[in-house]
Amino acid sequence: MSVLGPLRLSVNGVDVTPTAPKQMQVLALMALNEGQVVTASSFVDELWAECPPRSAKTTLQTYILHLRKLISKAFKDESPVVRDILLTRQGGYLLRLPMAPFDLRQFNEFSTEGRIALSQGDPFRGSQLLRKALSFWQGPALVDVPTGSILGPKVRGLQAEHQIALECRIEADLQMGRYDDAIGDLVTLTAQQPLNENIHDQYMRALHLAGRRSEALGIFHRLRKNLMDDLGLEPSEQVQRTQQVILSSASSREDGAARNWWTPWAPDRHHGPSAA
């Protein structure tokens, strides 16, 4: 099961992903709630919003039946296995994939472990785990699936989790002294997200620690202009603190604790949209 990019469901190596948009929505909604019952009313809200047809529940049953048929074709002994994957429950349906590779589950596991390692002072292990977590992404979440009132917020939540994992991985690289690697990512990210204070703060620190002090200060002024022009806001205290440290530092390496001036750091200062 894959949702971190295009929606994909394969059984025994056979792609059984539906192609009809509403059937894709049904599968996607169950996948994002894997192991939990999705109520019929939730499906109706997602598929038809405030204008469901009179036949909405019957149509939903038809979509579920079609998904079961797609899955069953990949099994020789179809009936018992299919019943264990896509179950009918009181008031709704449940998708169960306890043993199957599922990119969202794998991303969450590696991302959580990586962030814990970083918080415990092990940036090397944190970077490895976070890189592994990010490797499961093949594009924006559910990029080929239409989204309604329920899937839409869930997809935006997934993109936010991707952003946090990416920022934490960059933070780990900075703590290990991999400034050039971080700068390469941050050039693109800051262009995509001109109002995101976290990544601009990281970009300023990476440039300064790489010996590019004047460029780091230039990034501050660019961010400040963007924030003032678009939102009428000054940069956050953390970003201003980073600027002051850079201004007061004659050299990026004059202090053995230079790499840690930003502690504690948390990926929570977003004004602009997150990148995919």
UniProtKB/TrEMBL annotation:
GO BP annotations, alphabetical order: phosphorelay signal transduction system; regulation of DNA-templated transcription
PANTHER family found in the cross-reference section: TRANSCRIPTIONAL REGULATOR REDD, TRANSCRIPTIONAL REGULATOR REDD-RELATED
Domain (OmpR/PhoB-type): residue spans on this chain: 1-97
DNA-binding stretch(es), residue numbering of this chain: 1-97
Name this polypeptide is given: Mithramycin regulator MtmR
Organism (species): Streptomyces argillaceus
Protein family (similarity comment): Belongs to the AfsR/DnrI/RedD regulatory family.
Pfam family, one: BTAD
An annotated Gene Ontology molecular function: DNA binding
Gene3D superfamilies to which the protein is assigned, alphabetical: Tetratricopeptide repeat domain (1.25.40.10), Winged helix-like DNA-binding domain superfamily/Winged helix DNA-binding domain (1.10.10.10)
Keyword entries, A-Z: DNA-binding, Transcription, Transcription regulation, Two-component regulatory system
Record InterPro entries: AfsR-DnrI-RedD_regulator, BTAD, OmpR/PhoB-type_DNA-bd, Sig_transdc_resp-reg_C-effctor, TPR-like_helical_dom_sf, WH-like_DNA-bd_sf
Superkingdom of source: Bacteria
